[in-house]
Amino acid sequence: MEGRRPPRLDELDLKIISHLQEDGRMPASELAKRLNQPENTIRYRIERLLRLGVIRRFTALVDPRALGLNVSAAVMFKVDPKRVDQLLERLSSMRDVTNIYQLSGEWDLIAVVFARDIQDLHSRIEEFRKMDGVREMNVMITTRVVKSEYRFVLT
């Protein structure tokens, strides 16, 4: 969807998305009942939303601590402009990096990384430092998660 005009979404699309953000496993039959629509209409709309990239995928939201990932950090990068794409590709391939944002302003990129403990995080940071194109880094260790939400208010 990047670079394209967003698809037109009507009120029913937004209601479907809202319900699926709450429970991505909700059956189309249940959605149909809640929205007072035929089940085939709901199935068609969900498939359309997937095809258009409005819904990227269905997944489980996992608590990283339950997987032993007890430390997280936001890592800001200043990058050689000739190496940005290469660095983005490398960061994207790393399993412990969950989010990457390219920025305007003083810093070029920010990546969110998870680790088992401080020593594990230190290893990740050292790995980042050695990457081609990294000019400077600023590491901010998370001290408290106040909000971690992937839902958007639509209706």
Tertiary shape:
elongated
* Total domains: 2
CATH topology of the largest domain: Alpha-Beta Plaits
For the biggest sheet, the summary is:
4 strands, antiparallel
- SS content category: alpha+beta
How many helices? The count is 5
CATH class of the largest domain: Alpha Beta
Structure description:
This protein is α+β, with helices and mostly antiparallel strands and 155 residues long. It folds into two domains: 11-51, Arc Repressor Mutant, subunit A (Orthogonal Bundle); 64-141, Lrp/AsnC effector binding domain/regulation of amino acid metabolism (RAM) domain (Alpha-Beta Plaits). The protein has five helices and four strands. A four-stranded antiparallel β-sheet has the order 2-3-1-4. α2 crosses α3. It starts with 10 loop residues before the first helix and ends in a 14-residue tail after the last strand. The model has no long low-confidence stretch (mean pLDDT 93).
